[in-house]
Task: structure prediction
Amino acid sequence: MVTNLSFTTAVIFLALAMFLRYLFFSGSAYFIFWKKLKDKFAQRKLNFAPFQKNQIKKEILYSFNTTIVYGLVLGALLNKNVVSHTKVYFDVSERGWGYFFLSLVIIFVFHDMYFYLSHRLLHTPFLYRKVHSVHHSTLSPDPWTSYSFHFAEALSLVLFMPLLIMAIPVNFWALNIFGVGTFLFNVVGHLGYEIMPKNYMKFGLHNFMNTATHHSLHHKYPNSNYSLYFNYLDRLFKTNHRKYSTELSNMLKKEVL
Ligand SMILES: [Zn+2]
Ligand SMILES: [Zn+2]
Result:
């Protein structure tokens, strides 16, 4: 059973698994969009700011640090003496599949709120200067930017996990799905290409779900576009960048060749 692993083994196992996951997903996205299909998606490239020399090397190093911080926190939570004090359960039948899927929705909604709030705090002058500037040192995101954080920011992000599992009952596998889902969304947000279909705005989906254009603009104009998955908090607090709709609309008009 995973909860029987020693703290050191759990940390090494988790940090390594998350770093390999980062290499696999970010590497695949980079290979597909930045190499293989770059001509096909040439018009959809998000060039709001210049790409820097040594950018990718710096991002991979910071991302490695992030996986260690995540491994330390999640490794501590995985211990059977710790996990037994949380609301994590292992057998889906304990609460049924209905609750399993409902809890996934709840997790993403809670995480979205947590991210928006912590992201606004990270943009206060002191925290921005000391911590969040690491992530923003990338002006034009690429898939490798997705875990490029100062260790204190990585810690603030992963602290969502203990808060969540103390607050509501969650199945162990729902947590794993959330972990992969949030990382994939993060990679898409930092893709550096807009991949949404051309009629995305016609159905008003941009008011619901964020895009790579949304987060690329955040890297160019750091005082706007703070939200993660959903756009409603940026609309509610009027923090969407004024150019967002226009930029997205212009981008979606461009053909994928
Ligand atoms: Zn970012
Ligand atoms: Zn930011």
User: Anything to note?
Assistant: The pocket of zinc ion (ligand 1) is lined by residues 135, 141, 145, 190, 215, 219 (CB under 6 Å).
